[in-house]
Design goal:
Length: 499
Protein backbone atom coordinates (compact mmCIF):
# COMPACT_ATOMS: atom_id res chain seq x y z
CA UNK A 1 0.00 0.00 0.00
CA UNK A 2 2.85 2.38 0.80
CA UNK A 3 4.26 1.76 -2.67
CA UNK A 4 0.92 2.70 -4.21
CA UNK A 5 0.76 6.06 -2.41
CA UNK A 6 4.41 6.71 -3.19
CA UNK A 7 3.78 6.11 -6.88
CA UNK A 8 0.83 8.50 -6.87
CA UNK A 9 2.76 11.17 -5.03
CA UNK A 10 5.71 11.01 -7.41
CA UNK A 11 3.68 11.83 -10.54
CA UNK A 12 4.08 15.43 -11.67
CA UNK A 13 1.60 16.57 -14.31
CA UNK A 14 3.16 19.81 -15.56
CA UNK A 15 6.86 20.19 -16.26
CA UNK A 16 6.88 22.67 -19.15
CA UNK A 17 10.01 24.76 -19.50
CA UNK A 18 10.44 27.93 -21.53
CA UNK A 19 12.53 30.72 -20.03
CA UNK A 20 10.94 33.54 -22.02
CA UNK A 21 7.38 32.42 -21.31
CA UNK A 22 8.24 31.78 -17.65
CA UNK A 23 9.62 35.29 -17.28
CA UNK A 24 6.53 36.78 -18.89
CA UNK A 25 4.23 34.71 -16.67
CA UNK A 26 6.07 35.67 -13.48
CA UNK A 27 5.90 39.35 -14.39
CA UNK A 28 2.23 39.05 -15.28
CA UNK A 29 1.33 37.19 -12.11
CA UNK A 30 3.33 39.66 -10.03
CA UNK A 31 1.35 42.58 -11.46
CA UNK A 32 -1.97 40.84 -10.93
CA UNK A 33 -1.47 39.26 -7.51
CA UNK A 34 1.19 41.40 -5.85
CA UNK A 35 3.23 38.26 -5.14
CA UNK A 36 5.57 37.18 -7.89
CA UNK A 37 4.99 33.65 -9.00
CA UNK A 38 2.30 32.83 -6.43
CA UNK A 39 -1.45 32.71 -6.55
CA UNK A 40 -3.85 34.84 -4.53
CA UNK A 41 -3.55 32.47 -1.59
CA UNK A 42 0.21 33.08 -1.32
CA UNK A 43 0.77 29.35 -1.56
CA UNK A 44 2.87 27.31 -3.99
CA UNK A 45 4.55 28.67 -7.09
CA UNK A 46 1.75 27.76 -9.48
CA UNK A 47 3.64 29.15 -12.46
CA UNK A 48 5.88 26.08 -12.38
CA UNK A 49 2.91 24.02 -13.49
CA UNK A 50 1.66 26.21 -16.33
CA UNK A 51 2.37 24.97 -19.84
CA UNK A 52 4.96 27.19 -21.50
CA UNK A 53 4.08 27.39 -25.20
CA UNK A 54 6.14 30.35 -26.41
CA UNK A 55 7.89 30.50 -29.78
CA UNK A 56 7.46 27.66 -32.22
CA UNK A 57 6.26 25.42 -29.39
CA UNK A 58 3.02 27.42 -29.46
CA UNK A 59 2.15 25.63 -32.70
CA UNK A 60 1.31 22.59 -30.53
CA UNK A 61 -1.96 24.39 -29.79
CA UNK A 62 -4.19 23.27 -32.65
CA UNK A 63 -6.20 26.49 -33.00
CA UNK A 64 -3.05 28.64 -33.04
CA UNK A 65 -1.44 26.36 -35.64
CA UNK A 66 -4.52 26.57 -37.85
CA UNK A 67 -4.81 30.36 -37.57
CA UNK A 68 -1.12 31.02 -38.22
CA UNK A 69 -1.01 28.65 -41.20
CA UNK A 70 -4.13 30.30 -42.68
CA UNK A 71 -2.54 33.74 -42.61
CA UNK A 72 0.74 32.41 -43.99
CA UNK A 73 -0.81 30.42 -46.83
CA UNK A 74 -3.20 33.21 -47.79
CA UNK A 75 -0.33 35.67 -48.13
CA UNK A 76 1.65 33.02 -49.99
CA UNK A 77 -0.95 33.03 -52.78
CA UNK A 78 -0.36 36.71 -53.50
CA UNK A 79 1.61 37.60 -56.62
CA UNK A 80 3.88 40.64 -56.49
CA UNK A 81 4.06 42.44 -59.85
CA UNK A 82 6.16 45.25 -61.23
CA UNK A 83 3.79 47.31 -63.40
CA UNK A 84 4.10 50.25 -65.73
CA UNK A 85 1.43 52.71 -66.81
CA UNK A 86 0.48 52.16 -70.44
CA UNK A 87 0.78 55.18 -72.74
CA UNK A 88 -2.13 53.99 -74.85
CA UNK A 89 -4.84 53.41 -72.26
CA UNK A 90 -3.33 54.94 -69.16
CA UNK A 91 -3.74 51.72 -67.14
CA UNK A 92 -1.10 49.84 -65.17
CA UNK A 93 0.04 46.62 -66.86
CA UNK A 94 2.77 44.14 -66.00
CA UNK A 95 6.12 45.10 -67.51
CA UNK A 96 8.25 42.10 -68.56
CA UNK A 97 10.54 43.83 -71.05
CA UNK A 98 14.31 43.86 -70.61
CA UNK A 99 15.58 44.12 -67.03
CA UNK A 100 12.03 44.62 -65.80
CA UNK A 101 11.35 40.99 -66.69
CA UNK A 102 14.23 40.03 -64.38
CA UNK A 103 12.65 42.02 -61.56
CA UNK A 104 9.28 40.31 -62.05
CA UNK A 105 11.02 36.93 -62.08
CA UNK A 106 12.54 37.67 -58.66
CA UNK A 107 9.22 38.93 -57.31
CA UNK A 108 7.02 36.15 -58.69
CA UNK A 109 9.12 33.01 -59.11
CA UNK A 110 12.42 32.67 -57.22
CA UNK A 111 13.80 35.58 -55.21
CA UNK A 112 16.90 33.53 -54.23
CA UNK A 113 18.27 30.02 -54.84
CA UNK A 114 16.87 28.67 -51.56
CA UNK A 115 13.30 29.93 -51.69
CA UNK A 116 10.35 30.40 -54.04
CA UNK A 117 8.29 33.59 -54.11
CA UNK A 118 5.30 31.98 -52.36
CA UNK A 119 7.53 30.57 -49.61
CA UNK A 120 9.05 33.98 -49.02
CA UNK A 121 5.62 35.59 -48.67
CA UNK A 122 4.60 32.88 -46.19
CA UNK A 123 7.76 33.26 -44.10
CA UNK A 124 7.45 37.03 -44.04
CA UNK A 125 4.05 36.64 -42.40
CA UNK A 126 5.48 34.04 -39.98
CA UNK A 127 8.27 36.40 -38.91
CA UNK A 128 5.79 39.22 -38.31
CA UNK A 129 3.61 37.02 -36.09
CA UNK A 130 6.43 35.49 -34.03
CA UNK A 131 9.15 38.15 -34.11
CA UNK A 132 7.28 41.34 -35.04
CA UNK A 133 9.59 42.07 -37.99
CA UNK A 134 10.64 40.51 -41.28
CA UNK A 135 13.81 41.70 -43.03
CA UNK A 136 14.52 41.06 -46.73
CA UNK A 137 18.00 42.01 -47.94
CA UNK A 138 18.13 43.33 -51.52
CA UNK A 139 21.42 42.11 -52.97
CA UNK A 140 22.54 44.36 -55.85
CA UNK A 141 25.48 44.38 -58.23
CA UNK A 142 27.90 47.25 -58.69
CA UNK A 143 25.54 48.93 -61.13
CA UNK A 144 22.68 48.89 -58.64
CA UNK A 145 20.72 46.13 -60.41
CA UNK A 146 18.83 43.74 -58.15
CA UNK A 147 20.34 40.24 -58.15
CA UNK A 148 18.58 38.41 -55.29
CA UNK A 149 16.24 38.93 -52.36
CA UNK A 150 17.23 37.19 -49.10
CA UNK A 151 14.88 36.67 -46.15
CA UNK A 152 17.00 37.27 -43.06
CA UNK A 153 16.97 35.04 -39.99
CA UNK A 154 17.79 38.02 -37.79
CA UNK A 155 18.11 41.74 -38.15
CA UNK A 156 18.56 44.96 -36.22
CA UNK A 157 18.16 48.60 -37.21
CA UNK A 158 21.07 50.88 -36.35
CA UNK A 159 19.45 54.26 -35.89
CA UNK A 160 22.75 56.12 -35.57
CA UNK A 161 24.08 54.87 -38.89
CA UNK A 162 20.66 54.53 -40.58
CA UNK A 163 21.54 50.98 -41.56
CA UNK A 164 20.64 47.37 -40.74
CA UNK A 165 22.73 44.54 -39.32
CA UNK A 166 21.44 41.40 -41.02
CA UNK A 167 22.10 37.66 -41.00
CA UNK A 168 20.83 35.39 -43.77
CA UNK A 169 21.38 31.89 -45.10
CA UNK A 170 22.86 31.26 -48.57
CA UNK A 171 24.10 28.14 -50.40
CA UNK A 172 27.60 29.26 -49.34
CA UNK A 173 26.63 29.35 -45.68
CA UNK A 174 25.49 31.93 -43.13
CA UNK A 175 26.20 35.49 -44.18
CA UNK A 176 26.23 38.75 -42.20
CA UNK A 177 26.08 42.22 -43.70
CA UNK A 178 25.53 45.85 -42.78
CA UNK A 179 23.16 47.25 -45.39
CA UNK A 180 21.87 50.79 -45.95
CA UNK A 181 18.20 51.36 -45.25
CA UNK A 182 17.25 51.58 -48.94
CA UNK A 183 18.59 48.03 -49.52
CA UNK A 184 16.36 46.38 -46.91
CA UNK A 185 12.66 45.60 -47.06
CA UNK A 186 11.49 45.92 -43.46
CA UNK A 187 7.98 44.50 -42.90
CA UNK A 188 6.71 45.38 -39.43
CA UNK A 189 3.79 44.20 -37.39
CA UNK A 190 1.00 46.70 -36.80
CA UNK A 191 2.14 47.61 -33.25
CA UNK A 192 5.56 49.25 -32.83
CA UNK A 193 7.93 49.70 -29.92
CA UNK A 194 8.74 53.19 -28.65
CA UNK A 195 11.49 53.62 -31.24
CA UNK A 196 8.71 53.61 -33.91
CA UNK A 197 10.92 51.39 -36.08
CA UNK A 198 10.67 47.89 -34.62
CA UNK A 199 7.44 45.91 -34.68
CA UNK A 200 5.96 43.98 -31.75
CA UNK A 201 5.18 40.28 -32.30
CA UNK A 202 1.58 39.06 -32.23
CA UNK A 203 2.55 36.18 -29.96
CA UNK A 204 3.53 38.66 -27.24
CA UNK A 205 -0.14 39.51 -26.77
CA UNK A 206 -1.28 35.93 -27.31
CA UNK A 207 0.99 34.45 -24.63
CA UNK A 208 -1.58 34.28 -21.84
CA UNK A 209 -4.28 32.76 -24.04
CA UNK A 210 -1.79 30.23 -25.37
CA UNK A 211 -0.70 29.30 -21.85
CA UNK A 212 -4.30 28.77 -20.82
CA UNK A 213 -4.89 26.63 -23.90
CA UNK A 214 -1.68 24.64 -23.41
CA UNK A 215 -2.34 24.09 -19.71
CA UNK A 216 -5.90 22.94 -20.39
CA UNK A 217 -4.63 20.54 -23.05
CA UNK A 218 -2.06 19.00 -20.72
CA UNK A 219 -4.54 18.81 -17.85
CA UNK A 220 -7.05 17.04 -20.09
CA UNK A 221 -4.34 14.66 -21.30
CA UNK A 222 -3.22 13.94 -17.73
CA UNK A 223 -6.74 13.29 -16.47
CA UNK A 224 -7.59 11.14 -19.46
CA UNK A 225 -4.40 9.11 -18.96
CA UNK A 226 -5.12 8.37 -15.30
CA UNK A 227 -8.79 7.63 -15.88
CA UNK A 228 -10.16 10.78 -14.30
CA UNK A 229 -9.09 9.92 -10.73
CA UNK A 230 -9.43 12.42 -7.92
CA UNK A 231 -6.72 14.17 -5.92
CA UNK A 232 -6.82 13.16 -2.26
CA UNK A 233 -5.80 14.93 0.94
CA UNK A 234 -4.73 12.41 3.60
CA UNK A 235 -4.60 14.13 7.00
CA UNK A 236 -4.68 13.61 10.74
CA UNK A 237 -6.98 15.19 13.30
CA UNK A 238 -6.07 18.68 14.52
CA UNK A 239 -3.75 18.53 17.61
CA UNK A 240 -5.43 19.31 20.91
CA UNK A 241 -2.83 21.97 21.62
CA UNK A 242 -4.39 24.19 18.98
CA UNK A 243 -7.67 24.15 20.88
CA UNK A 244 -6.76 23.75 24.56
CA UNK A 245 -2.97 24.03 24.91
CA UNK A 246 -0.90 26.75 26.52
CA UNK A 247 0.29 29.78 24.55
CA UNK A 248 3.82 28.45 24.09
CA UNK A 249 2.53 25.14 22.77
CA UNK A 250 0.03 26.99 20.61
CA UNK A 251 2.72 29.12 19.03
CA UNK A 252 4.83 26.08 18.30
CA UNK A 253 1.90 24.33 16.66
CA UNK A 254 1.13 27.41 14.56
CA UNK A 255 4.67 27.40 13.22
CA UNK A 256 4.37 23.74 12.38
CA UNK A 257 1.01 24.39 10.77
CA UNK A 258 2.48 27.19 8.66
CA UNK A 259 5.26 24.88 7.48
CA UNK A 260 2.73 22.16 6.79
CA UNK A 261 0.62 24.59 4.75
CA UNK A 262 3.58 25.46 2.54
CA UNK A 263 4.33 21.78 1.99
CA UNK A 264 0.70 21.09 1.12
CA UNK A 265 0.74 23.96 -1.35
CA UNK A 266 3.70 22.44 -3.18
CA UNK A 267 2.31 18.89 -3.10
CA UNK A 268 -1.11 20.05 -4.27
CA UNK A 269 0.08 20.97 -7.73
CA UNK A 270 2.37 18.00 -8.36
CA UNK A 271 0.93 14.99 -6.50
CA UNK A 272 -2.27 13.01 -6.77
CA UNK A 273 -2.18 12.11 -3.07
CA UNK A 274 -1.19 14.79 -0.53
CA UNK A 275 -0.04 13.61 2.93
CA UNK A 276 -0.28 15.43 6.25
CA UNK A 277 1.54 13.51 9.00
CA UNK A 278 -0.33 10.43 10.24
CA UNK A 279 -3.38 9.21 8.40
CA UNK A 280 -6.68 9.96 10.08
CA UNK A 281 -9.12 10.62 7.22
CA UNK A 282 -9.18 11.18 3.47
CA UNK A 283 -10.76 14.18 1.73
CA UNK A 284 -11.33 14.71 -2.01
CA UNK A 285 -9.78 18.04 -3.02
CA UNK A 286 -10.21 18.03 -6.82
CA UNK A 287 -12.64 17.35 -9.64
CA UNK A 288 -12.41 14.77 -12.37
CA UNK A 289 -12.00 15.65 -16.04
CA UNK A 290 -15.74 15.09 -16.47
CA UNK A 291 -16.51 17.50 -13.61
CA UNK A 292 -14.16 20.15 -15.01
CA UNK A 293 -15.54 19.62 -18.55
CA UNK A 294 -12.08 20.23 -19.93
CA UNK A 295 -12.84 18.77 -23.32
CA UNK A 296 -16.03 20.84 -23.68
CA UNK A 297 -14.46 24.11 -22.61
CA UNK A 298 -11.62 23.87 -25.14
CA UNK A 299 -13.81 25.96 -27.44
CA UNK A 300 -12.47 28.92 -25.47
CA UNK A 301 -9.15 28.42 -27.23
CA UNK A 302 -10.66 28.79 -30.69
CA UNK A 303 -12.54 31.99 -29.87
CA UNK A 304 -9.62 33.76 -28.22
CA UNK A 305 -7.01 32.71 -30.75
CA UNK A 306 -9.29 33.52 -33.70
CA UNK A 307 -9.77 36.99 -32.23
CA UNK A 308 -6.02 37.53 -31.78
CA UNK A 309 -5.13 36.45 -35.32
CA UNK A 310 -8.07 38.12 -37.03
CA UNK A 311 -9.32 34.82 -38.47
CA UNK A 312 -13.11 34.10 -38.33
CA UNK A 313 -14.06 31.00 -36.34
CA UNK A 314 -15.61 29.09 -39.29
CA UNK A 315 -12.22 29.23 -41.00
CA UNK A 316 -10.70 27.63 -37.88
CA UNK A 317 -12.81 24.49 -38.47
CA UNK A 318 -15.32 25.58 -35.83
CA UNK A 319 -18.77 25.15 -37.38
CA UNK A 320 -20.79 25.77 -34.23
CA UNK A 321 -23.69 28.20 -34.72
CA UNK A 322 -23.02 28.43 -38.44
CA UNK A 323 -25.30 28.36 -41.46
CA UNK A 324 -24.73 27.51 -45.11
CA UNK A 325 -23.78 31.14 -45.80
CA UNK A 326 -21.32 31.40 -42.91
CA UNK A 327 -18.15 30.07 -44.65
CA UNK A 328 -18.56 32.43 -47.60
CA UNK A 329 -19.20 35.42 -45.34
CA UNK A 330 -16.27 34.43 -43.09
CA UNK A 331 -13.90 34.23 -46.04
CA UNK A 332 -14.95 37.65 -47.29
CA UNK A 333 -14.57 39.13 -43.80
CA UNK A 334 -11.10 37.60 -43.46
CA UNK A 335 -9.93 38.99 -46.78
CA UNK A 336 -11.43 42.43 -46.17
CA UNK A 337 -10.49 43.00 -42.52
CA UNK A 338 -7.24 41.06 -42.14
CA UNK A 339 -5.57 40.40 -45.51
CA UNK A 340 -6.34 43.67 -47.31
CA UNK A 341 -4.52 45.89 -44.74
CA UNK A 342 -1.52 43.53 -44.84
CA UNK A 343 -1.36 43.85 -48.63
CA UNK A 344 -1.42 47.66 -48.48
CA UNK A 345 1.39 47.76 -45.90
CA UNK A 346 3.57 45.46 -48.01
CA UNK A 347 2.89 47.43 -51.20
CA UNK A 348 4.01 50.63 -49.49
CA UNK A 349 7.29 49.04 -48.41
CA UNK A 350 7.97 47.54 -51.86
CA UNK A 351 7.26 50.83 -53.63
CA UNK A 352 9.37 52.91 -51.25
CA UNK A 353 12.44 50.64 -51.58
CA UNK A 354 12.30 49.35 -55.17
CA UNK A 355 11.11 52.55 -56.85
CA UNK A 356 12.01 56.20 -56.54
CA UNK A 357 10.02 59.40 -56.28
CA UNK A 358 10.47 59.96 -60.02
CA UNK A 359 8.55 56.71 -60.69
CA UNK A 360 5.43 57.82 -58.86
CA UNK A 361 2.44 57.79 -61.19
CA UNK A 362 4.43 55.93 -63.87
CA UNK A 363 5.44 52.65 -62.26
CA UNK A 364 4.38 50.69 -59.22
CA UNK A 365 4.75 47.39 -57.31
CA UNK A 366 1.32 45.79 -57.04
CA UNK A 367 0.28 42.72 -55.03
CA UNK A 368 -2.34 40.86 -57.06
CA UNK A 369 -4.97 38.77 -55.27
CA UNK A 370 -6.41 36.96 -58.31
CA UNK A 371 -5.11 33.59 -57.12
CA UNK A 372 -7.52 33.68 -54.17
CA UNK A 373 -10.49 33.24 -56.55
CA UNK A 374 -8.94 30.44 -58.57
CA UNK A 375 -10.72 27.62 -56.71
CA UNK A 376 -14.04 29.44 -56.28
CA UNK A 377 -15.78 28.86 -59.63
CA UNK A 378 -18.97 30.71 -58.69
CA UNK A 379 -17.18 33.90 -57.66
CA UNK A 380 -14.87 33.63 -60.67
CA UNK A 381 -17.79 33.22 -63.11
CA UNK A 382 -19.69 36.16 -61.65
CA UNK A 383 -16.60 38.34 -61.88
CA UNK A 384 -15.93 37.41 -65.50
CA UNK A 385 -19.58 38.05 -66.34
CA UNK A 386 -19.33 41.54 -64.90
CA UNK A 387 -16.06 42.19 -66.73
CA UNK A 388 -17.56 41.11 -70.04
CA UNK A 389 -20.80 43.10 -69.68
CA UNK A 390 -18.97 46.29 -68.75
CA UNK A 391 -16.40 45.97 -71.53
CA UNK A 392 -13.49 45.61 -69.09
CA UNK A 393 -12.44 42.26 -70.62
CA UNK A 394 -12.83 40.76 -74.06
CA UNK A 395 -13.89 37.15 -74.62
CA UNK A 396 -10.34 36.11 -75.41
CA UNK A 397 -8.97 37.84 -72.32
CA UNK A 398 -11.39 35.88 -70.15
CA UNK A 399 -10.51 32.66 -71.96
CA UNK A 400 -6.85 33.44 -71.36
CA UNK A 401 -7.51 33.73 -67.62
CA UNK A 402 -9.11 30.28 -67.78
CA UNK A 403 -6.18 28.80 -69.75
CA UNK A 404 -8.35 28.27 -72.84
CA UNK A 405 -7.40 29.00 -76.48
CA UNK A 406 -8.55 32.19 -78.20
CA UNK A 407 -11.50 32.22 -80.58
CA UNK A 408 -12.15 34.17 -83.76
CA UNK A 409 -13.55 37.68 -83.24
CA UNK A 410 -12.96 37.28 -79.50
CA UNK A 411 -10.95 40.47 -79.14
CA UNK A 412 -13.92 42.79 -79.37
CA UNK A 413 -15.20 44.67 -76.32
CA UNK A 414 -18.90 44.45 -75.52
CA UNK A 415 -21.05 46.55 -73.25
CA UNK A 416 -24.56 46.00 -71.95
CA UNK A 417 -27.20 48.11 -73.76
CA UNK A 418 -29.04 48.71 -70.49
CA UNK A 419 -26.67 51.62 -69.96
CA UNK A 420 -26.31 54.72 -72.11
CA UNK A 421 -24.51 58.03 -72.01
CA UNK A 422 -26.49 61.03 -70.80
CA UNK A 423 -27.93 62.91 -73.76
CA UNK A 424 -27.39 60.03 -76.16
CA UNK A 425 -29.91 59.07 -78.91
CA UNK A 426 -30.82 55.96 -76.96
CA UNK A 427 -32.20 57.98 -74.06
CA UNK A 428 -34.04 60.36 -76.39
CA UNK A 429 -35.77 57.40 -78.03
CA UNK A 430 -34.47 58.19 -81.51
CA UNK A 431 -32.05 56.23 -83.63
CA UNK A 432 -30.70 56.54 -87.14
CA UNK A 433 -32.12 53.18 -88.19
CA UNK A 434 -35.77 54.18 -87.77
CA UNK A 435 -35.43 57.66 -89.26
CA UNK A 436 -35.70 59.42 -85.91
CA UNK A 437 -38.96 57.75 -84.91
CA UNK A 438 -39.69 57.86 -81.17
CA UNK A 439 -39.06 54.37 -79.83
CA UNK A 440 -38.94 55.20 -76.13
CA UNK A 441 -39.65 52.37 -73.75
CA UNK A 442 -42.32 53.52 -71.35
CA UNK A 443 -42.13 52.16 -67.83
CA UNK A 444 -45.13 50.53 -66.27
CA UNK A 445 -46.29 50.47 -62.68
CA UNK A 446 -48.86 47.83 -61.82
CA UNK A 447 -50.77 48.32 -58.59
CA UNK A 448 -53.05 45.61 -57.25
CA UNK A 449 -54.77 45.30 -53.90
CA UNK A 450 -57.23 42.76 -52.42
CA UNK A 451 -59.59 45.56 -51.43
CA UNK A 452 -59.51 47.39 -54.76
CA UNK A 453 -61.87 46.44 -57.52
CA UNK A 454 -59.49 47.42 -60.31
CA UNK A 455 -55.80 47.50 -61.01
CA UNK A 456 -54.35 50.54 -62.67
CA UNK A 457 -51.52 50.67 -65.16
CA UNK A 458 -50.17 54.15 -65.39
CA UNK A 459 -47.93 54.96 -68.31
CA UNK A 460 -45.37 57.74 -68.60
CA UNK A 461 -47.86 59.50 -70.83
CA UNK A 462 -50.07 60.12 -67.81
CA UNK A 463 -52.94 58.04 -69.22
CA UNK A 464 -54.68 55.42 -67.08
CA UNK A 465 -55.97 52.08 -68.25
CA UNK A 466 -58.57 50.20 -66.24
CA UNK A 467 -58.10 46.56 -65.42
CA UNK A 468 -60.74 44.44 -63.73
CA UNK A 469 -59.73 42.34 -60.74
CA UNK A 470 -61.55 39.88 -58.48
CA UNK A 471 -61.93 40.29 -54.74
CA UNK A 472 -58.43 38.96 -54.04
CA UNK A 473 -56.87 41.12 -56.73
CA UNK A 474 -55.42 38.06 -58.50
CA UNK A 475 -57.63 37.79 -61.63
CA UNK A 476 -57.45 40.61 -64.14
CA UNK A 477 -58.94 40.88 -67.60
CA UNK A 478 -58.58 43.43 -70.32
CA UNK A 479 -55.22 44.64 -69.09
CA UNK A 480 -53.99 47.16 -71.62
CA UNK A 481 -50.23 47.51 -71.90
CA UNK A 482 -48.68 50.05 -74.18
CA UNK A 483 -45.45 48.80 -75.66
CA UNK A 484 -42.53 50.84 -76.86
CA UNK A 485 -43.93 50.65 -80.40
CA UNK A 486 -46.76 52.91 -79.36
CA UNK A 487 -49.38 50.24 -80.09
CA UNK A 488 -51.77 48.98 -77.46
CA UNK A 489 -52.09 45.27 -76.68
CA UNK A 490 -54.56 43.46 -74.50
CA UNK A 491 -53.45 40.41 -72.57
CA UNK A 492 -55.35 38.01 -70.39
CA UNK A 493 -54.10 37.26 -66.90
CA UNK A 494 -55.25 34.07 -65.25
CA UNK A 495 -55.51 33.08 -61.64
CA UNK A 496 -52.16 32.78 -59.86
CA UNK A 497 -50.67 35.66 -61.83
CA UNK A 498 -49.89 33.62 -64.97
CA UNK A 499 -50.37 35.34 -68.33
Amino acid sequence: MDGFWKTLGSRGWMRGRASLGRKYLRESSSNETGSAGKGNDGGADWTEHVAMVGGRQSLLVAAWYRGVSLRMQTMGQMMVQYQRRSKAGGNYTEDDYGMNGRLNYLLQVRPNPLMTASQMMEQIEFHKIFYGNAYVYLEKDEGGMLQAMWLCSSGHYNMGGDSYWLTYQTPRGLMSVEAPREDVLHFKNVFLYDDMVTGMPVIRYAMKSLQIAGTADQQALHDMAKGGRYKLLVREDAPQALAYGASAAGRADQQELRQLTEELGEDWMSKDAVFANNIADVKIISQTAADLKLLETRGYQVTEIARLLGVPKPMMMDDSNSSYKTPEAATQEFLLRTISPLIREMEDEYNSKLLGAEDFGKRRIHICEKALRRLDPTAQANLFKTYLETGAYTVNEIRGEMDMPSVEDGDKNYISTNLAELGSEKLSGKSKSDGGKDSRIEQETVTTSPWMGAAVIQQHTGREYGMEADENGTRTEGAVIQRHTGREKTGEKREGGEG
